[in-house]
C-alpha cells in the first residue's frame, strides 16, 4: 500500500483532521475509496475521522455514517482475508476498525462486547506485526489495547492472565511517536488521555501545553485540561478552560448540544467547587432549559448523554440550595 499518492492523501487528510476540518478530511479520505474500493483503508480513515469529531464535539449526528464506513472497513478486510491476500496494512485496518467498534460498545454500556472486540482487534494487530515487524503504526493500537484493558480491569490484576500492562502500552505508544508513519500525531494526543486517566498530571499538563502551541483551543485538549485541573483543585484555571471550550464548541460547524450541556455542567461544577454558587447556578439554569431536548428527535446516544447531564445538574442545584440555605 506504500505509494506517494497514498501518502499524499493520508497526510493531507490527517492535517485536516487535526485542524478540525472534518468534512474536508472525509472528502480527502474518500479518494482512497475511489482508488481502492475493495480495500479497508479508505473506509477505515473515513470512520476514524467521524469518530474523532464525535469524540471532540459530542456531536452524534454522523453516528449512522460512522457505523456504515466502519462496517465496510471490516467487511472489505474480511473478504480479502477469505481470499488469503491480506497484507500488514489490511490487518492493521481490520484490527483498528474492530477496535473502534469495541470502544463504541463499551461507551454505550456493552462492556463484554467491548472486551471481545478489543481482543479480536488485538489479535489482528498481532498478525499485522507478524507480517511486517517494521510497521510501527501497529503499536498505536496494541499500546492502546494494553493500557485501556489494564485500566478498566484493575480489579482483576491479581489474575496471572490479566495483570497490569499499562506501562507496556505506554511504551508502545511512545515508540509510535518516535518511529511511526501515519499514527505519530494520534499517539501524541493519545498520551494526553492516558496521562490524565492514569493520574500522571504533570506529564498531562506538559503534553497538553506542547500540543496547544500547535493546536490552540482544540476541544480534545481543553476537555482533558479541564478534567485535570478539576481533579487537582485548580478551580480558577478550570473555569477559564471550560469557558474557552464552550466558546470553541458553540462557534464550531460541528456543534452538538450534548457537548454544550456537558461543558456547561463541568463549568458549573468548577464554579461550585470554587464556592461561586451564583455563577454555578447560572450555568445550571441554562442546562435545565435543554431538558426537553433529551426526549425526542435526536440520536439515542445524544438523548442519553443530555439526560445524564441534566440529572447531574439537578443534583448539583440541590447541593447549592442546601449549602446556601439560611435558617
Write up this protein.
The chain contains 15 helices and no strands. By secondary structure, the protein is mostly helical. The protein has a domain of 127 residues: Serine Threonine Protein Phosphatase 5, Tetratricopeptide repeat. The longest helix has 25 residues. The mean pLDDT is 91.
Describe the secondary-structure layout.
Blueprint: H1 4-18, H2 22-35, H3 41-57, H4 63-82, H5 88-107, H6 111-131, H7 138-152, H8 166-179, H9 184-197, H10 201-214, H11 219-231, H12 235-251, H13 257-273, H14 277-288, H15 300-324
Helix pairs in contact: 1-2, 2-3, 3-4, 3-5, 4-5, 5-6, 6-7, 7-8, 8-9, 9-10, 9-11, 10-11, 11-12, 12-13, 13-14, 13-15, 14-15
Brief overview, please?
By secondary structure, the chain is an all-alpha fold. It is built from 15 helices and no strands.
Amino acid at each position: 500500500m506504500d505509494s506517494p499518492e497514498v501518502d499524499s492523501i493520508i497526510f493531507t487528510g490527517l492535517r485536516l483532521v487535526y485542524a478540525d476540518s472534518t468534512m474536508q478530511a472525509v472528502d480527502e479520505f474518500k479518494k482512497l475509496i475511489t482508488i481502492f474500493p475493495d480495500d479497508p483503508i479508505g473506509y477505515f480513515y473515513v470512520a476514524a475521522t467521524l469518530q474523532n469529531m464525535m469524540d471532540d464535539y459530542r456531536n452524534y449526528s454522523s453516528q449512522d455514517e460512522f457505523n456504515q464506513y466502519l462496517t465496510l472497513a471490516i467487511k472489505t478486510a474480511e473478504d480479502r482475508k477469505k481470499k488469503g491476500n491480506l497484507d500488514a496494512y489490511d490487518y492493521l485496518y481490520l484490527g483498528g476498525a474492530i477496535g473502534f467498534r469495541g470502544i463504541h460498545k463499551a461507551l454505550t454500556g456493552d462492556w463484554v462486547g467491548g472486551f471481545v472486540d478489543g481482543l479480536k482487534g488485538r489479535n489482528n494487530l498481532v498478525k499485522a506485526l507478524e507480517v511486517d515487524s517494521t510497521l510501527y503504526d501497529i503499536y498505536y493500537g496494541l499500546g492502546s489495547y494494553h493500557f485501556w484493558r489494564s485500566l478498566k480491569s484493575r480489579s482483576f490484576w491479581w489474575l496471572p492472565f490479566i495483570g497490569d500492562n499499562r506501562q507496556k502500552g505506554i511504551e508502545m505508544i511512545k515508540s509510535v511517536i518516535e518511529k511511526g508513519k501515519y499514527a505519530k500525531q494520534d499517539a501524541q494526543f493519545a498520551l494526553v488521555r492516558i496521562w490524565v486517566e492514569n493520574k500522571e498530571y504533570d506529564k498531562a499538563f506538559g503534553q497538553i501545553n506542547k500540543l496547544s502551541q500547535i493546536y490552540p483551543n482544540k476541544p480534545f485538549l481543553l476537555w482533558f485540561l479541564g478534567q485535570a485541573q478539576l481533579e487537582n483543585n485548580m478551580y480558577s484555571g478550570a473555569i477559564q478552560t471550560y469557558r474557552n471550550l464552550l466558546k470553541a464548541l458553540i462557534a464550531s460547524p460541528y456543534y452538538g448540544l450534548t457537548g454544550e450541556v456537558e461543558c456547561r455542567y463541568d463549568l458549573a461544577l468548577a464554579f461550585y467547587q470554587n464556592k461561586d454558587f451564583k455563577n454555578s447556578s447560572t450555568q445550571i439554569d441554562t442546562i435545565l432549559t435543554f431538558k426537553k431536548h433529551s426526549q425526542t428527535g435526536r440520536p439515542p446516544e445524544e438523548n442519553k448523554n443530555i439526560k445524564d447531564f441534566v440529572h447531574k445538574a439537578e443534583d448539583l442545584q440541590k447541593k447549592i440550595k442546601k449549602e446556601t440555605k439560611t435558617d
